[in-house]
């Protein structure tokens, strides 16, 4: 497909060398995986939707002062990002009991939490990304105590903003996973939001019906993933339906 140098290939994305030093091109694939790749499928159109949804959310977060790796949209599947050193943690923020929290503590899915909970998982596929405590993170040097404070504060700000964003379009933000990286800026290390935020990495339930609009549809074989992601994009105002008589299907609207 291209002569660009591939820097890294993950389950749902590929990173290519960018046009300038310190930049990368983040390419969204159509691969859907779950349970550390034990379940795998190609879901045509998913990459395009996730690229656009993630780009939209990163731009909005940038507008409220959250530092991110996002530079600009490139095309339907790719965005230009700043190369960051990824902190090897998956940060999960939860507002409602679901998924592994429901399983681990024997709680009912859908129970509103008394306050938002932030959890850390160590990024290690061979260990299935185990849940870890702050003590492990600082003792093993995955992040410093100062970095963890910063990560936690940013995660809660991102949660507040995204809860409001989704509430405004009739969606309950149940939980989500984010990742952060380190960037050198003016000889200082800066923590930035990295990776993606999309229906692959969030649980999104319709406020009225509790219908799932996220990757649990794939994980649990509950229905059509692309239709649900299109619904999220449509409500965010970034997927425009054709007018009656138009030959084309729904069209994603680029921001620039
Ligand atoms: P969990 O309930 O399975 O721990 O998932 C919590 C949130 O994190 C949920 O929104 C899905 C997201 N997530 C990922 O993005 N990647 C993963 O590998 C896992 C396990 C969860």
Please characterize this protein's 3D structure.
The protein has 256 residues and is α+β, with helices and mostly antiparallel strands. It has two domains: 6-84 and 225-240, Phosphorylase Kinase, domain 1; 86-206, ATP-grasp fold, B domain (D-amino Acid Aminotransferase, Chain A, domain 1, 2-Layer Sandwich). It is built from six helices and 16 strands. Strand 2 and strand 3 (23-28) form a beta hairpin. Helix 1 runs parallel beside helix 6 (225-236). The chain is globular, with a radius of gyration of 18 Å. The two termini are 24 Å apart.
Task: Describe the SSE topology.
Layout (H helix, E strand, L loop, with lengths): L5 E4 L3 E5 L5 E6 L2 E4 L4 E4 L3 H18 L6 E6 L2 E5 L2 E2 L2 E8 L2 H7 L6 E11 L8 E2 L1 H6 L5 H23 L3 E15 L2 E7 L7 E5 L9 H4 L5 H12 L2 E2 L10 E2 L4
Antiparallel strand pairs: 1-2, 2-3, 3-7, 4-5, 6-7, 8-12, 9-10, 9-12, 10-11, 12-13, 12-14, 15-16
């Amino acid at each position: 497909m291209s002569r660009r140098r591939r820097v890294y290939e993950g389950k749902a994305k590929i990173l290519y060398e960018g046009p300038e030093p310190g930049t990368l091109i983040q390419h969204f694939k159509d691969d859907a995986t779950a349970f550390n790749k034990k379940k795998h499928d190609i879901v045509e159109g998913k990459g395009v939707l996730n690229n656009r949804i993630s780009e939209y959310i990163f731009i909005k977060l940038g507008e409220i002062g959250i530092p991110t790796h996002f530079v600009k949209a490139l095309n339907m599947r790719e965005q230009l990002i700043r190369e960051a050193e990824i902190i090897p943690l998956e940060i999960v923020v939860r507002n409602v009991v679901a998924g592994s929290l429901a399983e681990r503590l024997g709680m009912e899915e859908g129970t509103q939490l008394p306050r938002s909970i932030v959890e850390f998982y160590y990024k290690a596929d061979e260990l299935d990304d185990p849940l870890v405590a702050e003590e492990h993170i600082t003792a093993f040097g995955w992040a410093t105590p100062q970095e963890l404070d910063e990560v936690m504060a940013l995660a809660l700000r991102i949660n507040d903003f995204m809860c409001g964003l989704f509430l405004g379009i009739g969606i309950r933000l149940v939980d989500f996973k984010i990742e952060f990286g380190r960037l050198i800026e003016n000889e200082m290390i800066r923590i930035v939001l990295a990776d993606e935020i999309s229906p692959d990495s969030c649980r999104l339930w319709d406020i009225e019906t509790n219908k799932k609009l996220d990757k649990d549809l794939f994980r649990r074989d509950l229905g059509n993933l692309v239709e649900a992601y299109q619904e999220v994009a449509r409500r965010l105002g970034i997927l425009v339906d054709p007018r009656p008589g138009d030959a084309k299907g729904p069209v994603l609207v680029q921001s620039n």
